[in-house]
Amino acid sequence: MDEYRELISVLPLDTVEYAFAYGSGAIQQKDENKAEKMVDFVVVTKDAQEFHKANIAKNPQHYSLLRLLGPKMLEKIQCNFAARVYYNTHVNVGKRKIKYGIISYENVKQDLLDWRWIYISGRLHKPVLDVIKPKDDMCDLVTENRRSALHSALLLLPESFTLKQLFHQIVGLSYTGDSRMIVGEDKNKIMKIVEGNYEELMRVYEPLMNDDARLSVMSPAKVIQDGSTTAIYHRLNLLPSEVLNQIQKNMNKAQKRQRDAEEVIFSLAHRHDVAATVETAIGGIIRPISFSQTAKNAFSAGMTRSVIYSLAKMSKFLKSK
What we know:
By secondary structure, this protein is α+β, with helices and mostly antiparallel strands. The chain has helices at about 1-10, 50-60, 70-80, 105-115, 120-125, 135-155, 165-170, 190-195, 200-210, 230-235, 240-255, 260-270, 275-300, 305-320; strands at about 15-20, 40-45, 85-95, 95-105, 130, 160, 215-220, 220-225. A hairpin with a 2-residue loop joins strand 7 and strand 8 (about 220-225).
């Protein structure tokens, strides 16, 4: 952990509420060497403009030529487009390379509670390293986000399954509809995360499973959930608001009717295509955001860094095929 704190200590941290490291450079994945990887960070700031102002003064080399637009314009680029994250990538700190995304507290709150973009929330479905510890309110948001991930994953699973199958669904949620999983990402990524982090996933999700009266963990090889219409209706109602909005929109469009969310959810709970409907809704949120945030990342990184990053991703993708 000290190594990761040292890596992020090059940033101005006065406005930072929470910072975590994620990805294969920070979290162990099966058959991967962390020491060889670029380390990915997310920094949550209470004042994005002030963060960029201080960071440009301290680390101008972290930015592309966009820094010339000034901190006010960088805040607008960060907070008004795609998943509301601004990334600086391929930054050299000592012997390691880091990539860090900056997001405002209000935007991260929206994503964790409502799954507005399923971007930072998706990263926090999985184990991360808390480099700057979250305060109580942020802890509550992270826990609520993971509870939503558990409900979503359970709606995608049958009445009986294994813990590994559950974790595979949870980890895979944020890749649903992500264009990078078609070209650009390691095809075995979800499996590698689950295999490399099984104990940590247990630590994170066991308390949430224990709190769920409709779920029984008999053994790692046998988990049983209540598959009744009442239980499904209950879980559907606990999904984040953006997922429910997407379900309502999709079902009304398919059936050429205008019904309110409560009527749509009640109707869905009685159908046999709940899993497909929920998965389609989640993918419908992630798909356009993955395109727009990838374009935004290339824009903020600059041409040279974008090419280097894309080539590295493509190399990983080809090795996994």
